[in-house]
Amino acid sequence: MSVTFFVPDAPSETIPCHRCEEYREPCSPFCDGTETVSVAPEPNFSNMNAARLLSAVGLPVGEDLFGSVAVAGLQDLKMSIQIAQNLPAIRYGMHVTERVVGNITTCGQGDEQAQRRLKQLLDLVEWCIENQEGLSWG
Predict the structure, then answer these.
(1) How does strand 44-46 pair with strand 67-69?
(2) What is residue 18's predicted lDDT score, i.e. its pLDDT?
(3) 3-class secondary structure for 16-54?
(4) Residue 124 phi, psi (nearest 5)
(5) Strand 2-6 vs strand 135-137: parallel, antiparallel, or unpaired?
(6) What 3-state class would DSSP assign to 103?
């Protein structure tokens, strides 16, 4: 499973279908060769990475991993992201070794991966601030 961070009311644009271009033929009998995409960034993370990211920036981490931030809270969120960007990943819980189930172990992520994810979230927050839109995840 994964969590997408998105702008519910973001404008969209129609672009050529990347699957049709990749296959060089219609990707499905229902595809008209185009797809509609948001003009806002839409980063997507695994559930575990999303939970760590939310925790790192001080947002609530519920079981269902969904939520939102209104326009009024975006500046505070931006500041929290910038603070997290200046900490080593291990200091905000994004680099840990956990035994999840049986023989499956997750070893977290290094600073580079954590920084990349924080940057993706920051890009979205800055887009939201500039366009006066709230953001959601789920």
Answers:
(1) unpaired
(2) 86
(3) ECHHHHHHCCCCCCCCCCEEEEECCCCCEEEHHHHHHHH
(4) -65, -45
(5) antiparallel
(6) coil
The dihedral built from the CA positions of residue 73, 81, 48 and 5, taken in this order, carries a sign that is: positive
Confidence of residue 107 (pLDDT cuts 50, 70, 90): low
Note whether residue 31 is domain-resident: no
> How high is the pLDDT of residue 108?
57
What was the pLDDT predicted at 102? 47
Question: 3-state DSSP call for residue 113?
Answer: helix
pTM of the model: 0.79
Condensed to tens digits (0 to 9), the pLDDT of residues 83-104 reads 988 877 655 555 444 444 444 4
Strand partners for 35: 15
Domain count, the chain: 1
Residue ranges making up the domain that contains 87: 2-9+42-137
Number of Cβ atoms within 10 Å of the Cβ of 79:
13
